[in-house]
Amino acid sequence: MPSYFPWWVVVTHFLNLFFMLLLMRSGIEVLSAFPKLYWNDHCPPGREWARFSKKTFGADSRTPWSSLDEEESWSSVVALPGKKNLGLGRHWHFMTVQFWILTGLVYVVLVFTTGYWHYLIPTHWSIVPDSIRAVGTYLHFQIPQRISGEPFEPAQKLTYFLLIFVLAPFQIATGAAMSPTVLARFPWYGKLLGGKQGARSLHFLGLCAFAAFIVLHVFMVIVHNLPKEFVSIVLAGHGSRALALGVGLAGLFLILLFHVVITWFSLRYRRRTQRLLGLVVNPFEKVISRSLSSREHYSADDLSPYHRVNGYPPVGQDYDRMVADDFRNYRLTIGGLVENPTTLSLAELRKLGVTRQTVKHNCIQGWTAVAEWAGVPLAAVLDRVRPTAEARHIVFYAMDDKGLTEGEGRYGYFYGSIPMFLAYDSQTILALDMNGAPLPVEHGAPVRLRIETQLGFKMVKWIVGIEFVSDTDSIGMGMGGWREDQQFYANAAGI
Ligand SMILES: Nc1nc2c(c(=O)[nH]1)N[C@H]1C(S)=C(S)[C@@H](COP(=O)(O)O)O[C@H]1N2
Ligand SMILES: [Mo]
Questions:
Q1: Domain Cytochrome b561 bacterial/Ni-hydrogenase spans what residues (predicted)?
Q2: In sequence order, what are the beta bridge partners of 413?
Q3: Fewer C-beta within 10 Å: the chain N or C terminus?
């Protein structure tokens, strides 16, 4: 027996369990932010195929609502860290996935270099009828025979094969198809998996498949002779049953303890968690964001009948007056580290040249919608104001004071920032029109940002000022944006 479970299998099996549980809990946190599943990227309210929330919202609702109202607060028992912490959940997910994939790669390399693949990869179709027979044997409360000279019976071998070589890559593929950068650069890839919502639904079903496997796997190990299997998978076959049981249970206990500690830490020290995990996640995001630019061109047929809104419009007389006179007295102030600070009316802004794009919006919560936006390329604005060599980020200030518009205990005017390189993407624009008409109030009138490789929260609406800065540490709470400051989202928003 020992030869069937070498030490590298023991170690990668444990690491896989360890990372999978982190991925599952943090994935559930991500789901809680938009607890609905669709097959269609228009995400029509009320038409989801699955909803894990009692709240319902309609496209024709009389009272305005914002997509953040759809978020649910889930228990930390199932979600990491739970309690409406999408930003931190995503951080855990994207930190873990890097190590999970690394473990998988090491495992697969060893599987092939050691010849272990023989035990896992069926080489003949007879595995299918053999597996069916094996299942039949189980249903007669008997254990089927192992394949001669191999560690597993046929159904077991086939299941492990599907898990390792189909389900795991499938989760990676559907996961990648949810990144706004990937979707903006390779729209065909999104389509391949049924769009972002298709990928999201499939990714969820993949989670269910993994969960079902774990339950079945544990049950089967118990049925097959738990103490003996424990010696194999915990001690690579070397040692007594008592020792294996002790070490195995200790390993499981450590995993549980780890989850309790990181959940508590994440909730208690949210800023520190955001920063620490960011050290691992942000460079990974940066590589993707920097190397891929947006190439989205949907057609008029693809426009979404209903485009969700996130964030309630500014309140107060100043904004109301602007709306009342069609923003004739609106001025956009652009300054900071530039050679040529300027103040522009809407007409002057338009004169810098208008482009249009039909693109898909990706909110961090998970919903999507397609619209046509027209506006001035940010690059044209940069040409006009000429940022100095010290300028490294662009900050966009908005007119909505969240303390007044939201009532969730958060406060301050909304703002966001982007690194300079995003400004040069040909689809980064200051949008003035949506679907052929001036921006509606709820979508950011009179000016909002569009950056197609990024998540929605980067696209500041109701912009009143733009500032070029060398760093964002001294703005707001110093995290680079209002949602980063107050909801602990990552500043890097390409994934
Ligand atoms: N000023 C401001 N801009 C904002 C927000 C906001 O609350 N205030 N929400 C952001 C988020 S999270 C998203 S998803 C998009 C939503 O854009 P939409 O309402 O036009 O769909 O706007 C972004 N820009
Ligand atoms: Mo969002």
A1: 5-227
A2: 401
A3: N
Give the domain ranges of the chain: 7-288, 295-486
Q: Which of 43, 42, 54, 31 lies closest to 207, judged by CA?
A: 31
Angle (CA) 310-429-427 rounded to 5° is 100
The least confident of 347-356, 403-412, 449-458 is 403-412
Is 369 within 8 Å of 306 (Cβ atoms)? yes
**Closest atom, ligand 1, to C-alpha of 362:** 14
- Ligand closest to CA 308: 1
- The set of protein residues with a Cβ atom below 6 angstroms from ligand 1 is 307-311, 361, 363, 398, 400, 414, 443-444, 456-457, 459-462
> Which CATH code is given to the segment(s) 295-486?
3.90.420.10
Three-class secondary structure of residue 457 per DSSP? helix
Consecutive H or E run containing 343: strand 342-344
Which residues, including other chains, have CB under 8 Å from residue 281's CB and lie 6 or more apart?
Answer: 91, 94, 95, 490, 492
Q: How far apart are CA 309 and CA 12, in angstroms?
A: 44
Backbone angles phi, psi at 167, to 5 degrees: -65, -45
Mean pLDDT across the stretch 70-86?
98
- The residue whose C-alpha atom lies closest to atom 21 belonging to ligand 1 is 309
- How far apart, in whole angstroms, are the C-alpha atoms of residue 457 and residue 367? 12
CB 36 within 8 A of CB 46: no
SS3 377: strand
pLDDT band at 2 (very low <50, low <70, confident <90, very high): very low
Whose Cα sits closest to atom 6 in ligand 1? 311
CA 15 to chain centre: 22
Tell me what pLDDT residue 1 has. 43
Distance between CA 23 and CA 3 in Å, rounded?
31
For 95-136, write each residue's pLDDT tens digit. Answer: 999 999 999 999 999 999 999 999 999 999 999 999 999 999
